[in-house]
UniProtKB/TrEMBL annotation:
Keywords: ATP-binding, Cytoplasm, Kinase, Nucleotide-binding, Transferase
NCBIfam families, alphabetized: cmk
EC number(s) on file: 2.7.4.25
Stated family: Belongs to the cytidylate kinase family. Type 1 subfamily.
Residue numbers binding ATP: G11, P12, A13, A14, S15, G16, K17, S18, S19
The protein's name in its UniProt record: Cytidylate kinase
Reaction catalysed by this enzyme: dCMP + ATP = dCDP + ADP; CMP + ATP = CDP + ADP
Biological process annotations from GO: pyrimidine nucleotide metabolic process
Length: 231
């Protein structure tokens, strides 16, 4: 069983992927699949049960992965650990610090990709991550690569987390963290040849959602982006 339609949204940390994917999916009546949430849920479980991050091996992670899955919820999917919602803990600082190491393990990547493909089976989906347009769904008819200036990404992430206006020092520190994580994720964060680059630095959330929805609707009417494979 293959997905009906895939809109792939990739890009670096805090470029707006998952919030944009959520709203695009809602507007189109598609389901949202957040691949990063699976890497994060597995990492959360590892922080709880696998000791210090230095000792994590692929075998240990894959054994824990048997206890993590994506479950359908209205409009999309949520990660479960031991059949319970993984919750906001997956967005915490400790998980964010350790997740790139987990995501380097080939067996873990295969596990996430299989879970994401299974979630998409038979559905129209908006899937966000790093390698959705290149590895997970290379035949997706619409691929978006979101980028934004690192300072602006850091500022947005802090507004989201603190719910207030961050200071310049806070933004500087968060920018450093984001840039370091981007470097660790660089191998898998690849813009597909047929992806559309969208720089959101000077766009509002609503504007970037509108643009992607407009592209998806054009596609539904039969248009194909330059260089995209024939459906
Ligand atoms: O939203 P943010 O960019 O902070 O993180 P995320 O999308 O939830 O992804 C968390 C981590 O999972 C990233 O830093 C990558 O290490 C990894 N990831 C990946 O390698 N491939 C994906 N398709 C999605 C996430
Ligand atoms: O999933 P990813 O880490 O790429 O980013 P996100 O969590 O969807 O977005 C980070 C924050 O930037 C969210 O609070 C968005 O609402 C906000 N934002 C945005 O994505 N685009 C804008 N043009 C303005 C704000």
């Amino acid at each position: 069983d293959t997905p009906l339609v895939v809109v792939a949204i990739d890009g670096p940390a805090a470029s707006g992927k998952s919030s944009t994917a959520h709203w695009v999916a809602e507007r189109l009546g598609y389901r949202h699949v957040d691949s990063g949430a699976l890497y994060r849920a597995l990492t959360l479980l590892a922080t709880q049960e696998a000791g210090a991050v230095e000792g994590w091996t692929e075998a240990v992670l894959l054994a824990l992965a048997a206890r993590v899955r994506l479950a359908p919820i209205p409009g999309g999917f949520e990660p479960l650990i031991d059949e319970r919602p993984a919750g906001d803990g997956i967005r915490g600082a400790e998980v964010t610090r350790c997740v790139s190491k987990v995501a380097q393990m080939p067996g873990v990547r295969d596990w996430v990709n299989a879970r994401v493909r299974t979630a998409a089976e038979g559905n129209a989906v908006v899937v966000d991550g790093r390698d959705i347009g290149t590895v997970v769904f290379p035949a997706a008819p619409l691929k978006i690569f979101l980028v934004a200036d690192p300072w602006e990404r850091a500022r947005r992430r802090l507004v989201q987390r603190l719910n207030r206006r961050p200071t310049d020092d806070e933004i500087a520190e968060e920018t450093e963290r984001l840039v370091q994580r981007d470097a660790k994720d660089a191998t898998q964060t690849v813009q597909a040849k047929d992806a559309i680059l969208l720089d959101t630095t000077y766009l509002t959330q609503a504007e970037q959602v509108d643009r992607i929805v407009a592209l998806a609707r054009a596609l539904e009417r039969g248009w194909a982006p330059d260089g995209a494979d024939e459906a």
